[in-house]
Structures are given as C-alpha cells and as structure tokens.
Design goal:
4-stranded antiparallel beta sheet; 2 domains; single chain; 10 strands; N-terminal domain of MutM-like DNA repair proteins
C-alpha cells in the first residue's frame, strides 16, 4: 500500500513534469472509484491546464486551471505512472488521462482506490479531515497531538484523522527504532519515549523519500524505489533475529493488522 514517502515522490515528479500541460481526454474504466458522474470528468477536465501537484498523506492532489482538483488514492496498492507520446498505457489501466502533446498518465489498482474530482469551492471530506503531516511538525506540536488521546500508539499512528500518511509498512520500523511496543498505551508514554517516536517517524519517512520510496512500489516514471527490507531491522522477518540485541523476532496481532517486533527491545 503506497504511504507518505511514495506519494511525496510521485507528487514531486508530477510537479517537475506536468505543470502547463493541457488535458485532451480522460478515459475511465472503473467508474466505482469516482466521487461523481463520469460525465463530469469528461466535461470539466479537457481543456484545463495543470497548475501543480502536492502530496496529502496517502493522497496526491493535482491542481488545474480554474480551481478544479483531482485527488488520487491508490488504496491497497496500484500505480500512477507517466507515459510519453507514442507509448501505450497497459491494458490493466483503470484510468488514462492524455494531454494535448500526446503524453499523459495512467492509474492501475490492485483492489480499490479513488479518483475524485473536486471543483473550485467544493469540500472533500476524505482529505479535509486528514491529520497533520508528520514531516511538517515540530516536536512540541507532536507532543500536543498525543495529549488527551487514549488507546494504543499503533492505532493512533495509523489513523489518518490523527496523523496522515503512515501505514503498516513503515510503522514497523518506526516503532522498532523508537523502542516501543505497538500496543503501548499513549498515556503511559514518557516524554523521552515521545521524543524517540517523533525522531523515528521523521528518520524512517525521510530515509525512504531520499531513496525514492519503497522498493515494492513504482514511482511516477515507473521505477522502483530503493527502500527495501534491508533498511528494516525486524519487519517481515519470520523467526528472525534482532540486529541490536540478538533476540528472536515475533509476529503479533495488533487489532486488524499484524506486526513484527523484537520481544526484548520492544517490551510491553
């Protein structure tokens, strides 16, 4: 599932490539991913020029002349990839947007996703309620964000309304580097543990962005990133060994998700 680093990389590449391009056509193969009738996309997007792109947690927003926005979320997995003039998008594409110069981008989805058109002045509940960007926060703001919250730290970090962009892939390395058990209760966190967690979030996400994001996902130009399991200490290592203390790794249930931990370094 693409998370914040993947969408940051894709948005940056879109920003480098798409501004000024004029939409020629939109081809939609999966209307159930839309937030409004397919005819609206055909009516409002052709003829519009791209102004820019930005990441919004697990979403990417493409802004158009006149104030319209296209918001894309790849759900459980998929690609949003650029194609040059003369290149054919893959048959599995769920969406194809073509510009007047013959270039464009396609979207594929493994399971579900969203391609939402938001017109100028309209709200978009799914992104309007997102929590803050973890890479745009100072520690004091992060500390304040945790105040008053109950429950375990992992569900809090995965809740997009609390903090945006973190999913089950990166959170395993984040919590390991912070030395925290995923089910530790938020009110029980010391200030030092909160500081370690804040630093681990920034370090892991920024490390992935620097490396072009996850090696399991494709960027806007169809290339894989270089952040793989070799960057993670215990994640996805069944019967593995912690590189810090030598203890066995363990896979545990954490609500609706599972996680690998070091039973010594991440004690509950």
């Amino acid at each position: 599932m693409p998370e914040l680093p993947e969408l940051v990389v894709i948005a940056e590449q879109m920003q480098q490539t798409l501004p000024g391009k004029e939409v020629a056509s939109v081809t939609i193969f999966q209307p159930k991913c839309l937030n409004r009738p397919e005819e609206d996309y055909q009516r409002y997007l052709p003829g519009k020029r791209v102004l820019g792109a930005r990441p919004l947690g697990k979403w990417v927003e493409l802004g158009f002349q006149g104030g319209d926005r296209l918001l894309v979320n790849l759900g459980m997995g998929g690609e949003v990839c650029y194609f040059k003039k003369g290149e054919e998008p893959p048959e599995k594409s769920k969406w194809i947007l073509t510009f007047t110069d013959g270039t464009g981008f396609f979207i594929t989805l493994w399971w579900f996703g969203y391609m939402h058109l938001v017109r100028k002045g309209e709200t978009h509940p799914m992104t309007d309620t997102l929590g803050p960007d973890p890479l745009a926060m100072a520690f004091d703001a992060f500390n304040k964000l945790l105040e008053g919250h109950r429950g375990s730290i992992k569900p809090f970090l995965l809740n997009q309304k609390c903090i945006r962009g973190i999913g089950n892939f990166y959170i395993q390395e984040i919590l390991f580097q912070a030395g925290l058990h995923p089910l530790k209760e938020i009110p029980c966190l010391s200030k030092e543990e909160k500081k370690r967690l804040f630093q681990a979030i920034r370090r892991v996400l920024e490390d992935s962005i620097t490396l072009g994001s996850s090696s399991y996902e494709l960027d806007f130009f169809g290339a894989k990133g270089r952040y793989g399991l070799d960057r993670m200490a215990v994640a996805y290592r069944e019967d593995g060994v912690c590189p810090v203390c030598g203890s066995k790794t363990e896979k545990i249930k954490t609500g609706s998700t599972a996680q690998f931990i070091c039973i010594q370094c991440q004690q509950l």
